Amino acid sequence: MLIFIGLIWLSQIIRILEFQYSISNQIIEIAGTTLLALPSFINPLVPFLILIGSFMLNSKIKNSNEIIILKQYLSVRSIRVLFQLLIFFTIIIYAINNEIISNKFYAKYKIKELEIRNNLKLGSPVQNEFHIDDIVSIFFDKKEDNTFYNVEAIIYDQNQFIASNSVEIELSKSNFNLLFSNGERIILNDIEKSKTVFDKFTYILESKKYEKLLLDKDHFNTFELISHLEDEFRNHGHNKIFHYFFLILIGLISLKIIFFHEDKKNNYSKFSFIFLLIILVQILNSYLIYLLDNFNSFKLLYFYSINFIFLISTFFLINKILK
To answer: What share of the chain is helix, strand, coil (3-state, %, to 5)?
Structure first.
């Protein structure tokens, strides 16, 4: 499970990074930010983790004396109830994460991710120098948040030289602005040669557009999704409902697997078939969601009907295999 989580975490770090920028000063911040996204990305893996866990537990029970020791204190029925409670609480925790925890953490993650990505668009200050491509160079004594102090700056395309008490990076409607305060500006180009003293001077970085926060499907819980105005969001909500039933199916199958006893060779072939069958159900569900999102003729009734037919068929088929 830790390997799966680690891979998800790494993929999120890579997704944020844009390698044309210097990232050495922000890699720790990026790594910390991506941790906020993990609750959202763990949920789809939970059914498969439960299934794999049941395979491993079955093997451990068969190859050790732990179940014999446990039987000295509990009846077989009590042991079954114990595992049923474990699966039940896993489903409860899954639901709490799915409806509350993951949404809250994902919202914080997207805000922080957006902030990092926008900062990466400008680059990072290094050794009291801040170079924004070949547009502007800022030399400063100290920095606090988005403000630089005791500044000397060069604006290359206009041959402008600026000395000011401070410069602040601010956001306009769609661009980044450099807001200089209390300084002097010298312009030396073919059009103008001048020296001016200013209280405020704003330079617009027109080529640097910042990204805005857009609410996507992972910002909402199931009820909010199925009540949404957009079809794609509602479809995602119904897909989350289906996954609760899918998780219940996995729970019932896992209970069968834990107490299934047969020789190791047969176990391996049967467990492999079960795992592939579960993956097939998930692939079918993904295809049905695709149809629901892209074809008006494919109705919600078809989505639920086909999915539940496959869920029920899968349960009875696996139940027959594990008899």
So the answer is: 60, 20, 20
Written as six digits, the tokens of 271 are 């467990």
Q: Are residues 86 and 15 in the same domain?
A: yes
Which pLDDT belongs to residue 265?
62
Kindly state the helix (H) or strand (E) to which residue 267 belongs, with its residue range: helix 264-294
Residue 312: pLDDT band by 50, 70, 90 thresholds?
Answer: very high
CA gap 321, 323 in Å, rounded:
6
Per-residue burial over 166-189, b if 16 or more Cβ lie within 10 Å, else e, is bbebeeeeeebbbbbbebebebee
Q: What is the DSSP letter of 44?
A: G
Cα–Cα distances (Å) from 165 to 154, 179, 310, in that order, read 15, 11, 69
Query: What six digits make up the tokens of 131?
Result: 């170079």
How far apart are the C-alpha atoms of 50 and 251, rounded to whole Å? Answer: 7
Find the domain containing 78 and state its range.
2-120+215-321
Does 187 lie in the same domain as 42?
no
- Which residues fall within 8 angstroms of residue 16, CB to CB, at 6 or more apart? 30, 33, 34, 113, 116, 117
Using the predicted structure, report yes or no on whether residue 11 has a pLDDT greater than 70.
no
- Sheet strands (E) in the chain: 129-132, 136-139, 142-144, 147-155, 160-171, 175-188, 193-209
Q: Which residue has the tokens 């405020």?
A: 200
**DSSP-based three-state secondary structure for 58:** helix
Query: 249 versus 115: which is more confidently predicted?
Result: 249
DSSP states along 85-101 = HHHHHHHHHHHHIIIII
As given in the structure block, the two tokens for residue 157 are 């395309």
Q: Which of 43-47, 51-55, 69-73, 92-96 has the highest mean pLDDT?
A: 92-96
Contact 154, 135 (CB under 8 A): no
What is the number of structural domains in the chain?
2
Among the residues of 143-263, which ranges form H helices? 222-226, 231-258
The pair of structure tokens assigned to 97 is: 């994460």
- Same-domain pairing of 75 and 199: no
- 106 versus 19: which is more confidently predicted? 106
